Amino acid sequence: MKLQSVMNILISMLTEKEAVSLQKAEPQGEPVKKGPRLFRRNSVAPLPRPAAAPKKTRPAPAPKPDPPKTKRPARRAAVGSTKTTNMKKPALQTVKAQPKEELKPLPNPVQSLSLVFQHLSQDDWEKKVEGLELLRALAQHHPDTLMDKLHEVCLALIEDIKNLRSSVACAAIDTLGSLYTHLQKDMDVQVERTGRALLLRVAQASANIFVQQQANLALEAMVKNCSPARMLTALLNTGLSHLSAAVRASTAQQLHLLADEMGVTAMLTAGQSFTSRFLLALSKMCLDAAAAVRPHGLAVLKQLSLHKDFMKLWQKAVEEKERFSVQKVLQKARRM
Question: What was the pLDDT predicted at 48?
């Protein structure tokens, strides 16, 4: 009995020490977890994670062979090869005319001419277009019928060229071009009046490029078929002195065409009055403020300067101050 009581005392002392040690071990304010819940948390081992699959690695691409090295030409050689002293100059750029409709001969030309004036005097634009078509047929097949009434016909055409309806204006311009083409030098008396009307129409049609092109085509027909002296008067009196750059450009284009049609020798031997007026106009073209005018003057001046008599005629026609300015422009253009 004594031994059993001693052992009970020892067991109780040991349990008290274990309780004190547990209280010291866990933090204050947090109860000690006992029982099966603590045993379950500490006894269950974590499940092992499956091993990650090995990453697939792509084989490295084979290196591309280096392209064969080519020697580049030197920059100076490239620039020098494009600039030549005897470069061919581009031809005069003109508007391509559409093929003309072949009209049939009229059974009664005199009666058709009377009908032309009746149609042109009306306000109906369709009647005007019909009358202009009859007039083109008369010019193609019955030009002699027009000669007695040519002045009245040209006055009626000038009025229709001013028409605000573009279809009527273009038809009248085209008809005037037909008169230049088929009557040719018989239109010399009417050139100054009709040419002025065409140039003024170019100024009025600043927003209508099609009308301007039609007017330029009619002026080209005038240059190719009428007398050069009459044409030059018509172009210079209205064209180069006009405030509109489009009118001056159109005039310069026609003077350029006139020089190409006549040739250098004929241009410089056409007479003192004609040559002097043309050289003065050429100097104005070269010094014009509009960029569309100057190239025509420079192109013609380069052609004429190759003639042996050019410098002598130029010194007579152009003043020294203006001549000096033109020479500077010409030298600069030749270096380009």
Answer: 54
